């Protein structure tokens, strides 16, 4: 390669010149953090906020419409349609807060930890510099994780974010089913 002997590390060293001291153990999770944070901030949260605001308007619009409440798909006691929609408003507000509460940990990136968190073959200060540059490029407050050993050994932040997203998805399904039932009669 480039005039060197096959298998030699000259003139191109696989770690120093090609890999540049990085590892899939730090680059892949960092890419996942960045992409998830961007999508959550630029698409999901604005969409949920818009949905929240629409439900809030409907809650006010429907404040004087009395209907029969339902529990376990059976008739229950009266309430206003506005009250019912206020519950949906709160569900979405809770979901937004759940997602936002995960972001501080999602913004912590492991880049520079290399293979197992030691930072071997990574220049001193690289992690901090790259986190700062990623923050500048994305407009989001990325920082380096406080413990790279922990961050390369597990992906708890993704489990946490998934839990929040799963809860929001469940709330959206519940709201959708309720509205479907509302439209199914009787009239």
UniProtKB/TrEMBL annotation:
The enzyme's E.C. designation? 4.2.1.2
Q: What class of enzyme is it?
A: lyase
Q: Which GO biological-process labels does this protein carry? A: fumarate metabolic process; malate metabolic process; tricarboxylic acid cycle
Fetch the InterPro entries from UniProt. Answer: Fum_hydII, Fumarate_lyase_fam, Fumarate_lyase_N, L-Aspartase-like
Q: Which Pfam family, giving just one, matches this sequence?
A: Lyase_1
What Gene3D superfamilies does this protein map onto? Fumarase/aspartase (Central domain) (1.20.200.10)
Query: Which protein family is it in?
Result: Belongs to the class-II fumarase/aspartase family. Fumarase subfamily.
Q: What is this protein called?
A: fumarate hydratase
Q: Which organism is it from?
A: Necator americanus
